[in-house]
Design goal:
- The chain is built from seven helices and 17 strands.
- By secondary structure, the protein is of the alpha+beta class.
- The protein is globular, with a radius of gyration of 27 Å.
- It folds into two domains: 197 residues, MHC class I-like antigen recognition-like (Murine Class I Major Histocompatibility Complex, H2-DB, Chain A, domain 1, 2-Layer Sandwich), CATH 3.30.500.10; 89 residues, Immunoglobulins (Immunoglobulin-like, Sandwich), CATH 2.60.40.10.
Amino acid sequence: MATALRLLALLGAAAIQGGYSSPHSYRYFYTGVSQPGPGLPDFISVGYVDGEPINHYSSERRRMEPRGDWVKGAVDPQYWEEWTQILRGWEPGFRADLVTLRGRYNQSAGFHTLQLKYGCEQQDDGSTKGFYQYAYDQRDFLSLDKNTETWVAADDAAQITKRKWDAERSIAQYWKGYLEGTCIEWLRKYLEYGKETLQRREPPRVQVSDRPSQDGGLTTLSCRVHGFYPRNVAVVWLKKGVAMLQETIQWGVVPSGDGTYQTRATIDIDPSRETDYTCCVEHPSLAEDLRVPWTVSEPKSSVMLIVGVIIGILVLVTAVAGAVVFLRKKKGGYKAAAGSNQGSHTGINA
């Protein structure tokens, strides 16, 4: 499962950098792979609200399942069986599409991916927007233009599907109606049911550290930001109060495993020339930006060094003594204690 989720993150997720204001979103990712393996089913579907997974389906388990207790209260009990049947119908379609696309691109057998991403967003001003798009091998393939109710092809191979889908206008009309209507309704419903989880605010904690850089003479400053929710965050290093946007290296926002997120930002500096550096963090939970200055590390005194050596020797002696006792007990027999259209797949070749 972890491998599958990493693939979804690779194909469909992008770290939010440079700003922290974002709309509310409801999105689905369908992913098919030509060569499945352990932990990587050939078809996966994951639904997200504001970047948080709310349901999951895979060709291994073959059931749509909720992610989080609050999700169950937002839908009728029969919802899970209905969507299980819907996604079972999408499975063979994705397999057939992968074969079709491999032929169009004149590719031999190997690892290939097909992904459908669709969903909607509600902006802070109440306006909405939606999207429906395919990607093949992590490159754009086909997308819906809602304004003209036509399909946009990314290359010649996609033109074949574009011509067929443009000729069947009901496909574009259906998805436009879904994205502008049903999708927004579901988004608002989930936001209401999950407001304690989705709309909570947990402020970031910040740790600043330094280490010698790989480039001789320089120092790398690291600003680790963790324990925050939602995931939208902006982190930048300031030099004398001025943002060093180009010099700051962003490492992306990732889950911490406890429902919060973490990230870090680094910068290489010459400490012999300037030491006035501050890590600046902006997050929706903060009334104003959080600034943590870098403090130049003081060299350890000789007294502290001697104390450290003595402590190290004592630890080593204790470890050796413990090992001797353990071996004696083991020799004497000691043992350690044990422990709708939406419900049907419209194929690329359709």
